[in-house]
Design a protein that fits this description.
The chain is of the alpha/beta class. It folds into 2 domains: about 80 residues, no CATH class; about 140 residues, Rossmann fold (3-Layer(aba) Sandwich). It has a 7-stranded mixed beta sheet, sandwiched between helices. Helix 1 crosses helix 2 and helix 5 crosses helix 6. The protein starts with a helix and ends in a 13-residue tail after the last strand. Bound molecules: S-adenosylmethionine (SAM). S-adenosylmethionine binds next to loops.
């Protein structure tokens, strides 16, 4: 509620700054017979808005208020086609943020190092990255372990193309354009995910149902609700959780996918 109120106040202050600067520009027109330069009006609007919000808005708003009108004016100078192109690129990269509420967010190199150690420790043969993004994780691992198999599933078109390109010279690294939910995970003794909190129970159940004996799930950042991870490993900004495939009889959560 408080955040919304701050946002509303910020926009109101911005609007007052813009209207105020237009009024002053009008005075200038009457006095000098010509409008001031648009960037001058925008700069004045920024200064007015910043001054107005200085006392009662958080400090980071000052920059927003100062530069906001200039950015808006700059935006009007850009051909609308560029905005359309940017929107299309964004869609081709982040389509899964809309479809599955899972945006692209790359895991860091620390994750690759932790997975590297896990592959050795667990004796992994085939690892699949469910939602591989630009495939930087599987490509790095495929280079380190040329004798093992790595597969990535991705359905954001632009990411898929980048991922394919990245793995083009790695015979042990395959990228597949397919929704990973529509794919059996039975061939992978290790499944790596970096998704969101929402699908984690479904991911875990799919692993339990389909992974071979001895299979293991690695989830970066997101725990499986109600299931205790076997190990929690620090992997840079986030922790990596390991969930082994349980012996068939001791399944804890049943039904659904
Ligand atoms: C947070 S990113 C992780 C990228 C990569 N695994 C990493 O660790 O850097 C999640 C990725 O999953 C992809 N994704 C989400 N749902 C998917 C689905 N059902 N099938 C295939 N890819 C999916 C998204 O497009 C996004 O690239």
């Amino acid at each position: 509620m408080r955040r919304h109120l701050t946002l509303l106040t910020g926009f109101a202050v911005l609007a007052i700054g813009i209207v105020g600067s237009l009024m002053l520009a009008r005075v200038w027109l009457d006095w000098r017979g010509n409008w001031p330069a648009p960037w001058g009006i925008a700069s004045l609007a920024g200064v007015l808005a910043m001054g107005l919000g200085w006392r009662f808005l958080p400090a980071w708003w000052r920059g927003v208020l100062l530069l906001g009108p200039l950015v808006m004016w700059g935006g009007l100078q850009i051909h609308p086609g560029w905005f359309l192109a940017a929107a299309v690129v964004l869609l081709l990269v982040q389509i899964n943020a809309i479809r599955h509420r899972i945006p692209l967010y790359r895991s860091g190199s620390a994750v690759i190092n932790v997975l590297d150690a896990e592959i050795r420790r667990q004796g992994v043969h085939r690892l699949a990255d469910m939602g591989c993004g630009d495939a930087h994780v599987i490509a790095a691992l495929a280079k380190r372990f040329p004798e093992l198999g790595f597969v990535g599933f991705e359905t954001a078109p632009l990411l898929y193309l980048v991922a394919r390109w990245r793995c083009r010279r790695l015979p042990n690294c395959r990228v597949i354009f397919r929704d990973f939910w529509r794919q059996s995970w039975g061939q992978y003794d290790a499944v790596f995910t970096f998704l969101s909190p929402e699908p984690m129970l479904r991911v875990w159940r799919k692993c339990q149902r389909e992974q071979p004996k001895g299979g293991v799930l690695y989830s970066l950042a997101f725990e499986v609700p109600r299931i205790e991870a076997e190990v929690r490993m620090s992997a840079g900004r986030f922790d990596l959780y390991r969930y082994p495939r349980l012996p068939r009889r001791s399944k804890v959560v049943r039904s659904g996918n």
